[in-house]
Structures are given as C-alpha cells and as structure tokens.
Amino acid sequence: MSNETYESAQQGLRWFSERDRARHIGEQGRTLVFDHGRRTERATLLLHGLSASPRQFINIAQALYERGHNVFVPRLPRHGHRNRLSEALATMSAGQLAACANDSLAIARGMGKRVSVAGFSIGGMLSAYVGQFEHVHRVVAISPFLGIAFIPNVLRLPMARWFLRRPNKFYWWDPFLRERQLPEHGYPRFATHALAHGLTLAHDVLEASAKAPPQADELVLVINPRDSAVNKRAIVKLAKRWMSGKPDAVRIHRLANLPPFVHDIIEPKRYPHVAQRVLPVLVELIDG
Length: 288
Description:
Layout: H1 2-20, E1 32-34, E2 40-47, H2 58-66, E3 70-73, H3 94-111, E4 112-120, H4 122-133, E5 138-142, H5 156-165, E6 170-172, E7 189-191, H6 192-209, E8 218-223, H7 232-245, E9 250-254, H8 272-287
Parallel strand pairs: 2-3, 2-4, 4-5, 5-8, 8-9
Antiparallel strand pairs: 1-3, 6-7
C-alpha cells in the first residue's frame, strides 16, 4: 500500500514539474522536491509567501531533508514567472490558493507516513487553512497573513471586498529599490487583488475556527513581535480559538531579538543574517 501511495505522489510531482516547464516560468521560480527515493516516516510540505517562490524555503527544506524528511515545496499559483514584473499575480484567487494547498497536501501524504505543513506569510495562512480543515501531524504557521498590521480585524473582509471591486493596482515592496529588490526569484511588486484574495481566505479560516476545532494534531503559530506587515492580533485570536477546541495541541512561539520592521525573515538573499538566525529555530519547530 505504501509503495502505491508513494507512486501516486510521484505522479503528482511529475505534474507539478511539467507545469513548471512552461516557457514563462523562471528556472529559479520552480517547485522544489527533496526526495529520499522512498516513502519516509516524515514528510513536510512548505508553502512560500506572496510574490516569493519555493527557493525562499531552500535552506529550511535542505535541513529537514538531512533529518530524514521528504520535502515538497510547490510553486503557488501565478508565481515564479521569468519576468519579475509580470502582472500574473493580479489573477491569483483564493480558490486557486486553496486548491494548490489541497493538491500539494495529497502529494505530501504519499511521500511520508506523518505529514507536517509549514508556511510563511500567505503560505503561513495556507498552512493554518490546512490545520483547520485537514488531519495532519503538525502545522507551523510562520508570521501567517491573517490580516494587515494596524488594520482592525473587523475590517478584514470589507477591505478585501473593497479592493476587489476596484481595478487591480501594483505596488513596490520597496519603493526605493523597486525592481532592484532581491531576491531575483521573487516579484518586487504585489497586487492589490492578490492581497484581497489572501484576506478572503484568511477570513474563512478564522470564521471556521470559531465553529469547529482544528483537525491537525499539533499546531504552532510563530509570531515575530517586530513584524510590521501582518496583523499579530489576528494570529493570537486564531490561537485562542484553536486552544478552546484543542487546548493541549496549540502553542504560540514568539521570536526574539529580530530587527524592527522586517517581515521576510526566511529569505536567504534578502536579510541573510536574519534568515540564518531563525533557521535552526524554525527547523526544530517543524521537525518537533
């Protein structure tokens, strides 16, 4: 049975590989797989952030692989284009994100007997989505995008709808560096419609958490107290709701002594000293 399950996972991986061979997908934007060639005891699914690519997780993926995990890092929809100024991100939807998470989880289940799911930012929100609705061994949501910093939680869905009623706009992550911003395998801009669809799915997760306990066995929410991008109150709110349904399964891990205003704490080419500092912490949280 395990061989058949593993072979099914390999078929799914081949589909992701074929999808990434499209001419418009950059070589550094493609899906990453770290596979021992057999179904292992542990498999980990890693989900990258908005406008980033699977290579954002490359150091964490390699460390988990060295610990015996099979690791799958899929390219999220509309990401990884060779043209860094591509406008594809404007057409990403909440449905596409959820479908990608579900398809990727099915593959990870074939790669390992116990599956962990970890993600960063919008990938962290997707890992929380998996933890709410799917039975997996462990979920680690790193700075999950459940809302925008300084924007009240009650405005999450109205803001998303407001964005979607208007034409999409692109904004630079760094208005000074603009297209020179690293890394090369990510987009230097974000789309307002993509942001809105992320908020919509985040709202669905939070609403579901008020009605039913999470399905994952273990859940870790990682907060960077000095993060200026995501809404930390929303993360704590999700944690409290999960704790009410599964009090012994949920924990919050607060990172300490990181530079102020830094959101992307895992990208090796953006803030390498920060990524190096949190690497062993995150690997331990995911590996357990």
